[in-house]
Amino acid sequence: MNSAILYAGILLLLLCGNATAQTDKRMQPLLSALQTATNDTARVRLCNQYFNEWVVQDNGVAYQIAVQGAAIARKMGWPKAIAVFSGNIGTVKSNAGDYDSCMYYFQQAFAVHTANKDAFNAASMLNNMGTAASNLQSDYSTAASYFFRALHIADSAGLQELTIICCTNIANTYFLQENYSKALAYAQRADSVAQPVQYVSRRGEIEKLLGNIYFKLNNRAAAKKHMEQALEIFVATENRMGEASMLGNLTMLTDSNFHYIITMRSKAAALWRDVNPFYLEALINMGNLGIAYADSAYKRSYLTGTRNDATQNELLQQASVWLTQSIELSEQVGELDSRSIFIGKLAEVSALRKDWEKA
Q: How far is CA 228 from CA 93, 152, 193, 264, in A?
């Protein structure tokens, strides 16, 4: 299951003008800071700083910031800054599931960084392209080629943080291909580099991945330890996408504690709704929350020996709501695999509710 230079410049300037008139109130601190900044160089750096803070919290706000920064960079004619914000816009497009657009922006940025012999940013763009190929197209072969190219640059230039990112991405790719031994080897390499230098935010992703790998290797104690460490890091660093992801992942460790599953997935759903409700993991969480409500209703019926009591009907109603939302959003983004699963579950729920139109 599964993201002409002249025209782009004009479009960014137009978008910037519109965004100023319709800005989210959360943009106000940045806009105030831009007004008091001493020059455009300072303004560009402010935009990049704010983008990095918002990209893990709200994709829409991050996009407004990236567009603002790109317009200033183009006004200055500063190629490196233009490339940085092109990459930032690519990240937003990738988060939104727009593969063609994100690859366009990443490739534009990569070309400039390569010409400038900027190893860190060139390798970062390769990582971004690999992530988009993996997450949005499930093209793991293409993704791996980008990641290994990036790792070669990182190792050659002695870029520790980038080595961590590359190894994590390679481990993720092996994980998705169900090669858990290689996934574990690269995740452990990433962890060994990250721990001595305390890359806290990177360690959150590594702990998350290690938790998932150990879960697949049927080591639930190790999985729980790493997942809880990941959640703690994501909360501390205000990484709401990471937090939402881990809340959902932790429910994999229990099969029948439906109160726990519903509580955790409901918290995750609230976070995904604010960050990016169209993200694949958000859609799956919605559907799984609906399944948890349905399974809770089935369990209640089994334990009490009754059917169609008020509590069971309420649980089935919630199941129907969440499954329907997941199906509708999946249709909008073309996510067919999970959609078909949730349609089948909704039919079961509708039959129990005697809603024959949907059954």
A: 30, 32, 21, 13
Residue 339 identity (one-letter amino acid):
R
Tell me, what's the pLDDT at 40? Answer: 93
Confidence class of residue 13 from pLDDT cuts 50, 70 and 90? very low
Q: For residue range 25-53, what is the model confidence (pLDDT) as tens digits?
A: 788 888 888 888 899 999 999 999 999 98
Q: Which amino acid is at 295?
A: D
58 token code pair: 């709200």
Give residue-wise pLDDT tens across range 48-71.
999 998 887 888 999 999 999 999
Distance from C-alpha of 15 to C-alpha of 198, rounded to nearest angstrom? 38
The two three-digit tokens of residue 308, written as one number: 């169609």
Q: Which of 272, 227, 273, 275 is nearest to 249 (CA)?
A: 227
The token pair that represents 275 in the structure block: 């960050």
Q: What is the DSSP letter of 256?
A: S
For residue 235, what are its two tokens?
């909360």
CB distance 106 to 128 below 8 Å: yes
Q: What is the dihedral of CA 131, 134, 139, 145, to 10 degrees?
A: 40
d(CA 63, CA 68): 9
Cα three-residue angle 26-32-35, rounded to 5 degrees: 145
